[in-house]
Write a structure and sequence with these properties.
The protein is of the alpha/beta class. It is built from three helices and three strands, in the order βαβαβα. It has a three-stranded parallel beta sheet, with helices on both faces.
Length: 105
């Protein structure tokens, strides 16, 4: 897909620098935060996507920026696996449709 995509696994300094880099590029188009930080303590890691939108780190037109409150090393592999599984199912469905059309001819 086109556009700037940002996935933040964990938080801290690296999340801060990635978000600021997106600020310099007029904001990310798609964003997923994965960490255990809560917003009540005022840390950068705990900041919500709404705050990043207000700073311009995420574009105002971004469709549903997401924050997942959990351990990144646990969930990130599951997110990646689901992405590949969805792609694989789509390709298999296209393959089956093509095979059926070939049989009908």
């Amino acid at each position: 897909s086109s556009g700037i995509n940002a996935e933040y696994g964990g938080g801290g300094v690296i999340k801060h620098h990635i978000a600021n880099a997106n600020l310099m590029r007029n904001g990310a188009d798609y964003t997923v935060y994965i960490n255990t930080a809560q917003p009540f303590d005022g840390s950068d890691s705990g900041a919500t996507p709404d705050e990043a939108v207000s700073w311009g780190k995420i574009k105002h037109g971004c469709k549903e920026p997401v924050k997942i409150y959990c351990e990144a090393t646990l969930v990130f592999p599951l997110v990646v696996a689901q992405t590949f599984a969805k792609y694989h199912r789509k390709k298999m469905a296209e393959h089956m449709l093509t095979a059926e059309k070939t049989q009908d001819e």
